[in-house]
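Lab manual, section 2.4: Encoding a predicted structure.

Procedure: take the sequence of the chain (141 residues), apply the prediction step described in section 2.3, and record the output as structure tokens. A sample record is shown.
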Amino acid sequence: MKIPITRDLALDEAELRETFIRASCPGGQNVNKVATAAQLRFDVRRSPSLPDVVRARLLQLARHRINARGELVITAQRFRTQEQNRADARARLVALIRQATRLPKPRRATKPSPAAKERRLAGKKHRSRVKGWRGHVPSEA
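Recorded output:
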């Protein structure tokens, strides 16, 4: 089954590995007995579903969540049920990949206006005068 990301991009469910672990969230005694936290692993480097441009951007965006094997690891433990945590982990993965599909807005270098330069210099002169007034006052002997 395919997980839709954008109109042109979809992930194959077979590319995801899901495991369930014990959560460290609220849940009373139940939290010690049931593995409700969902851990989703997605191999970003070897995924045939991702175009190279999106893959590179995703590796950059999620660099702290990617392990040494190149797997993106998402742990969801916000909810008390496995199913809700599983859906949360998948939604977070989809949101991250969608963010990677958007092209970053190119930065345009700008120059400060002459008036802005003048205001900056006037402020610096004012601060200089204020600090100068704090100096040592010569005593009259």
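Check your result against the sample. Residues 67 and 73 are 7 Å apart (CA to CA).
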